[in-house]
């Protein structure tokens, strides 16, 4: 396998470090064409759909994409903002805020960038940009607190596949999960308490996580257990008794059985049982997106109210909350131990001088 050409090497160039905050992805626009392109990339990943490739190719291209692209585009249009896709906007802001906080905490030479597993900016694109900047140490930070083969492992696949064609590899550190990280749980706790202080507290707190096929659990995926551990730790922080909260799973797709209980049917059942008000939070989503803003705040709300529920409250994702940015910084620090921190001005000047000398020598050699 041929390796891609390396950028020109300059003696004395300053090698640096970077954190890549990786989220799932989003279409470039709320249009049928853009959504189709995004869905094709997303649903073609064998980590996402474990069906024999030939069979799935026919289902995806002949059935799903022709019919689902338009419907999904309409849903995206309902939550699209002036700045663009909410998921992308929030992830960009989180990356910028994380960069500032790392600077404040003494990691001034660690760059923070955002990438998407599907869509743009793509992981390969971002990793190439970092190589061009002479970044030699990279931490990959998935935006998924709970590990799953369908999400986190897919990011690993993309990173390793990219570097399979690279000769000069950077040092890589991969964040696997942080479902039980104290700072992450604290951020969730503060977010919910802040909501309750403003809006009051409901009869039930429903913690809705993204679903995956039940088959993945039976084959050894730890996602289900990590969701429940997050929920248990959060409930303990909120001092909730077992009858005051529920764990559910949303976004079921296809006819196969997925992790249960399902979110929408559970909300309908709660309404029929006389629960007047529910508060719904999505701890597994760190940025508001289609699955939270449309599926939960709109569709699930309608299901609950149509079944007789009186009041439905959606508690937003962590987004740019200060406690969440602090959690991101602490998680990052745990994975960049030993990396150079902020340089003094004299060190910066010395490195810049060395780099300038290197460039001059390279130019002289080229001229000769």
TrEMBL record:
Its main location: cytoplasm. The gene is hemH. Catalyzes the ferrous insertion into protoporphyrin IX. CDD domains: Ferrochelatase_C, Ferrochelatase_N. GO terms for biological process: heme biosynthetic process. Belongs to the ferrochelatase family. Fe(2+) binds at residues 210, 291. The keyword Metal-binding applies. Pathway: Porphyrin-containing compound metabolism; protoheme biosynthesis; protoheme from protoporphyrin-IX: step 1/1. This is Ferrochelatase. InterPro entries: Ferrochelatase, Ferrochelatase_AS, Ferrochelatase_C, Ferrochelatase_N. It is an enzyme of class 4 (lyase).
């Amino acid at each position: 396998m041929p390796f891609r050409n390396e950028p020109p090497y300059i003696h004395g160039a300053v090698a640096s470090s970077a954190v890549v905050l990786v989220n799932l992805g989003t279409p470039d626009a709320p249009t049928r064409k853009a959504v189709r392109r995004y869905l094709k990339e997303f649903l073609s990943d064998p980590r996402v759909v474990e069906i024999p490739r030939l069979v799935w190719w026919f289902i995806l291209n002949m059935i799903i994409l022709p019919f689902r692209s338009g419907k999904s585009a309409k849903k995206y249009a309902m939550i699209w903002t002036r700045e663009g896709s909410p998921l992308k906007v929030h992830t960009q802001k989180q990356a910028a805020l994380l960069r500032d906080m790392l600077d404040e905490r003494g990691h001034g030479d660690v760059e923070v960038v955002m990438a998407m597993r599907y869509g743009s900016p793509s992981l390969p694109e971002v990793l190439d940009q970092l190589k061009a900047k002479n970044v030699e140490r990279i931490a990959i930070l998935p935006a998924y607190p709970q590990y799953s083969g369908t999400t986190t492992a897919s990011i690993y696949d993309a990173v390793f596949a990219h570097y399979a064609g690279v000769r000069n590899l950077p040092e890589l550190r991969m964040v696997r999960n942080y479902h039980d990280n104290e700072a992450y749980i604290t951020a969730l706790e503060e977010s919910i308490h802040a909501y309750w202080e403003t809006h009051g507290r409901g009869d039930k707190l429903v913690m809705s996580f993204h679903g995956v096929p039940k088959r993945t659990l039976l084959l050894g995926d730890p996602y289900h257990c990590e969701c429940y551990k997050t929920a248990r730790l959060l409930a303990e922080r909120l001092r909730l008794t077992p009858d005051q909260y529920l764990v559910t799973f949303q976004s079921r797709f296809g006819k196969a059985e997925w992790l249960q209980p399902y979110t929408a049917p559970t909300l309908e059942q709660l309404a029929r049982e006389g629960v007047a008000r529910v508060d719904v939070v999505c701890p597994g989503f760190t940025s508001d997106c289609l699955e939270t803003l449309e599926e939960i705040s709109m569709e699930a709300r309608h299901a609950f109210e149509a079944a007789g529920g009186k009041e439905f409250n959606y508690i937003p994702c962590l987004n740019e909350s200060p406690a969440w940015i602090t959690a991101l910084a602490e998680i990052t620090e745990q994975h960049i131990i030993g990396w150079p921190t902020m340089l003094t001005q004299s060190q910066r000047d010395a490195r810049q001088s060395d780099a300038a000398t290197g460039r001059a020598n390279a130019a002289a050699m080229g001229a000769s």
